[in-house]
Amino acid sequence: MPTEARFKRVLVANRGEIAVRIIRACHQLGLETVAIYSSADKGALHTLLATHCLCIGPAAAKDSYLNINAILEAAKLTAADAIHPGYGFLAERAGFARAVTEAGLVFLGPDADTIATMGDKVSAIKSIKAVGIPTLPGSDGALNDDMNAVEALATDIGYPVLIKASAGGGGRGMRRVDSADELASAIALTRSEALAAFGDNTVYLEKFLTHPRHIEFQMLADGEAALCLGERDCSAQRRHQKLIEEAPALGIAREKIREMADICEAACRRLGYRGVGTFEFLYQDGAFFFIEMNTRIQVEHTVTEMVTGLDLIAWQLKVALGHPLPPRPQVQGHAIECRINAEAPQSQLPSPGVITQLRVPGGPGVRWDSYLFPGAMVPAFYDSLIGKLICHGVTREEATARLRQALTELEIQGIAINKSLHLQLIACDAFQPWQRDIHFVDALSAPGV
Ligand code: ADP
Questions:
Q1: Which of 45, 47, 294, 356 has fewest C-beta within 10 Å?
Q2: Has 176 been annotated as catalytic?
Q3: What is the distance between the alpha carbons of residues 45 and 371, in angstroms, rounded to a whole number?
Q4: Atom of ligand 1 nearest to the CA of 121
Q5: Could you give the ipTM of this predicted complex?
Q6: What residues have CB less than 8 Å from 397, skipping those under 6 apart?
Q7: Which segments constitute the Biotin carboxylation domain (predicted)?
Q8: Which of 27, 66, 62 is nearest to 46 (CA)?
Q9: Which atom of ligand 1 is nearest the CA belonging to 136?
Q10: Closest by alpha carbon to 309, among 338, 331, 324?
């Protein structure tokens, strides 16, 4: 059993639905909470639910939710002894994990070195390959200026190839290349975009898969033992950003999934991984290829919760408190999540505003994770995710039917939401797991379709 530091008061270094979710889990475990907020989030649900709350700065994220000094100062002022980073903001900044630990607090995530290795895609692929996880054919390292060698490699792998920024994230920093004459300019463009967006122009090359599914494995580990809590299918993406996720992933042989789960567990043990984490893969023609590891709780952890009956945030906290891992859960039924965003249906531009009316769905197998209430403000400054609608059923058909009804019932006024897109997606033929690939949503919205 690991000898972790104990803690009693958790500062939640985040906002929105995930801050609410973490606060609920802490309270259920008898832990106190500290909510931090920017001036744009005054009166937000997470601040109302927490034991203590503190304004840490103005609306701009760089001055509040990304301001490490202000967050550590808030922890000191409120005598918090642990920090939960949630997802986004500082969750995968190694420097933040290090600063938290150096301040004598428990960081609820893996150690800073692991975050740094996995946060840089080139070093992540190297370390993942070393622990036996299959990767895509590619440059296996950063590209240098030797264009002859890069061209030879691309020809060898076969077009199309993908140029990716090592520091990329959020579906940004990648460019498909279909022939040798586009290669040099694609590398130059991706480099300059990566430098502007991530402050790092390191790029690498890998095979572009034309019709893969995005399948990921949820891990929970304590530095020694590791447990795979099953897989999720996140192929419903728009411009490489996830929209709908589900568990389990149907249409893939269960033996193949079990084999990958074993490989992921062995990899966690060899890495000495601690906390929750996700190995992301592309799956095409019967084979899995690693694309990246997320060293934090993910938005879509909820579908795994619905089919395993485990509270992943509670387990994240319990493992950090020194509890042994739970027994291997049985996967029961099927769960699907729709990400509800505040966005205009046509332009897809963010739609901030005050919630004037709210009607949330209910009934068996229906879960609504959100920070909204009538009168709540959806600020313009942050991610447009305002809630997650998750439905569970004995079968995928039942989960989908519940989702259709729940989406129909959901009514939010004061802002625009992407409800019609979700209703359209779950109704289309390509939504069937065995028919789809990661391009199906973009293909549906392509002109003329
Ligand atoms: P990010 O960190 O930006 O999320 P990922 O490496 O996880 O980047 O990739 C995001 C998405 O981009 C994947 O889910 C997939 O849709 C697409 N993608 C990434 N790599 C490839 C590839 N080699 N071939 C085809 N699509 C890819």
A1: 356
A2: no
A3: 6
A4: 6
A5: 0.97
A6: none
A7: 6-446
A8: 27
A9: 23
A10: 331
Q: Enumerate the domain spans of the chain.
A: 9-108, 147-207, 213-445
Whole-number Å distance, alpha carbon 214 to ligand 1 midpoint, is 8
Residue nearest to atom 11 of ligand 1 (CA): 240
Closest CA to 131 of 300, 268, 323: 268
Threshold 0.80, pTM exceeds: yes
Measured by CA distance, the residue closest to atom 15 of ligand 1 is 240
208: Cβ below 6 Å to ligand 1? yes
For 213-445, which CATH superfamily applies? ATP-grasp fold, B domain (3.30.470.20)
Please tell me if the domain spanning 9-108 has the same topology as the one spanning 147-207: no
Q: Is 170 in the pocket of ligand 1 (CB under 6 A)?
A: yes
Report which of 321, 370, 369 is spatially closest to residue 9, judged by C-alpha positions: 321
Contact in structure between 91 and 296 (CB atoms under 8 Å): yes
Per-residue pLDDT of 348-385, as tens digits, reads: 999 999 999 999 999 999 999 999 999 999 999 999 99
Express each pLDDT in 230-265 by its tens digit. 999 999 999 999 999 999 999 999 999 999 999 999
Residue 364: is it exposed, middle or buried by C-beta count within 10 angstroms (0-12/13-18/19+)? exposed
Ligand 1 neighbour 168 (Cβ under 6 A): yes
pLDDT of the residue at 56: 98
Judge if the beta carbon of residue 138 lies within 6 A of ligand 1.
no
Which of the listed residues 118, 237, 240, 284 should we mutate to test ligand 1's pocket, taking the one with most ligand atoms within 8 A of CB?
240
Secondary-structure class of domain 9-108 per CATH: alpha beta
Q: Which atom of ligand 1 is nearest to the CA of 172?
A: 3
- For ligand 1, whether the C-beta of 2 sits within 6 Å is no
Q: Whose CA is nearest to atom 22 of ligand 1?
A: 208
Tell me the pLDDT tens digit for each residue of 157-211. 999 999 999 999 888 899 999 999 999 999 999 999 999 999 999 999 999 999 9
- Nearest residue to 378 (alpha-carbon basis) of 362, 404, 358, 407: 358
Helix (H) or strand (E) holding 390: strand 385-393
Report the pLDDT value the prediction gives residue 446, as an integer from 0 to 100: 67
- Is the shortest distance between the CB of 352 and ligand 1 below 6 Å? no
Q: How far apart are the C-alpha atoms of 98 and 112, rounded to whole Å?
A: 5
> CATH says 147-207 is which class?
alpha beta
- pLDDT, tens digit, 9 for 90 and up, residues 278-335: 999 999 999 999 999 999 999 999 999 999 999 999 999 999 999 999 999 999 999 9
